[in-house]
Amino acid sequence: MELMSQPISFHIFTIFLLVGLIVLNYFKLSTYKDINKLKIYYSKMTPFFHFVNASIAYTGALVSAYLHNIGLVVLLMIFASLFIMISEIKRYKRLRVIRSNEFELQNSFIKYAKNITYMQAVLIVVVSIISFL
Fold this sequence. Notes:
Layout: H1 5-30, H2 35-66, H3 72-96, H4 103-132
Helix pairs in contact: 1-2, 1-4, 2-3, 3-4
């Protein structure tokens, strides 16, 4: 178990980093004024977001395989990582087709993106609580 202390610490650090990115995304969505600036922000943030999510999945799989602990909680964590990845891809795809003069689509996107951000945050909190029980 002593060998796994550093990967577990890195796993927990990246989870906090992902929560921070989700909060930052929500803040950007709440304070947006120009859809083009939001597109630029997401075009730069999305690869980093996916890198952090992949780091979480990889270190989680590494620790789980080392400890031979593939149970319901680990499957829930895999589902959470996949949900976060797929929802982020869908959000970015939906943003790419919006033009700067389509205000109805912009408003519907902001509501959609806030809902996704909220679901991602709740999912991470719920999975973290379940994993610590």
